[in-house]
Amino acid sequence: MAPRAPRSSRSPTRRVAGRTERRPLNRERIECEALALIEREGLEAFSTRRLGEALGVEAMSLYHHFPSKAHVLDALVDRVLSGIPIPDRQMEPAARLWQLVQHWREMARRHARFYPWLALHRWNSATGVAFLGEILDAFHDAGLDDERAARGFRALGYYVLGATLDETQGHAQGPSALQPLTPDALQARHPRVAAAGRFFTEDQFESTFRLGLEVLLHGLGMAPPAAPAPKRVRRRP
Questions:
Q1: Which band of pLDDT confidence, cut at 50, 70 and 90, is reported for residue 177?
Q2: Total domains present in the chain
Q3: Domain range for residue 120?
Q4: Within this chain, do residues 144 and 206 fall inside the same structural domain, yes or no?
Q5: Taking a C-beta distance cutoff of 8 angstroms, is the pair 88, 100 a contact?
C-alpha cells in the first residue's frame, strides 16, 4: 500500500451527504483565510508557508493564484477597502464625509492587526482610488475650490490615519519606558498630565475623535453634522 500523503500536501476535504468532497482552492478562500490568520497571529507571523498550513495545502499551491506573499497582501488591501460602505451621494457633503470616516474607523477596528499594513500602504489600486475619490468628491460638493478640497482631503487623511492607528495600536498598547513614572510621581510632578489621563481611555475615544473632526471641518468652512442624541438607557425596575 502506498504511504499516505502528509496533511499539508492534500487538498482540504469536507463531508457532504456521506461522501468526501474536495474544497477547491481559489482566491476567495485564500484571501479570507489570510485575513483570519493575520487577525489571529499578527502580520509578523504571516507567511505563505503558514497560510498553506492553515488551508491544508502546500505553499506552492498558493502560487497558482498569487505569485508571492506581497500579491496576497495587495489583494487584502483591496478586499478590506472594498468592504467599506459608501454613503448615498444625495446626503449633505459634511454628513457624507462623517459617515465615510466613521466607516473607515470601524474597518480599522475590525481588522486591527492587518490595519498597520493597510494604513501605510498606498491606496493607489482601482479600489483604493475609488474610495479616496468619494472623500475628495464630498469636499468639492461642499463648494471647496480645487486647492482647499485637496488640502482638506490631505488634512483629513493625516487626522484619520493618526487617530485610527492610535485607537487600534497606540495608546497604552505600544512599548513602554523601562522606568516609567509611577502614578504617585506623575501626580506630584505633572498633575495636569495625571488629570488629563481620565480623558484618554477607550470610552473617551468617540468624544475626542468628534472634537478633532469638527475642528477640521470648521477650519474648511464646513459645518459638521449635529451630534447624535445620546441613547436613553431604560433602567430595569
A1: confident
A2: 2
A3: 83-170+200-219
A4: yes
A5: no
The CB density around residue 142, as the number of other CB atoms within 10 Å, is: 20
Residues 14, 5: Cα–Cα separation, whole Å: 17
> Based on the domain organization, do 34 and 71 belong to the same domain?
yes
- Same structural domain, 138 and 114: yes
List of residues 6+ apart from 169 with CB closer than 8 A: 112, 115, 116
Q: Which residues pair with 106 in a beta bridge?
A: none
* pLDDT per residue as tens digits for the range 181-222: 999 999 999 999 999 999 999 999 999 999 999 999 999 999
Nearest to 37 by CA among 62, 15, 7: 62
Does residue 225 form part of some domain?
no
Does residue 102 share a domain with residue 47? no
- Cell digits for 167? 485607537
Q: 217's torsion region: left (phi>0), alpha (psi -120 to 50) or beta?
A: alpha
Nearest to 124 by CA among 77, 76, 59, 66: 77
Q: Are residues 39 and 122 in the same domain?
A: no
User: Would 96 be classed as within a structural domain?
Assistant: yes
Helix ranges restricted to H, the chain: 27-41, 48-55, 59-62, 69-82, 93-110, 115-120, 126-141, 146-165, 183-189, 191-196, 205-219
Q: Whole-model pTM?
A: 0.81
* 69 within domain boundaries: yes
In 3D space, the residue among 84, 104, 98 whose CA is nearest the CA of residue 228 turns out to be 98
Assess if residue 191 is contained within a domain: no
CA dihedral (81, 118, 200, 42) positive or negative:
positive
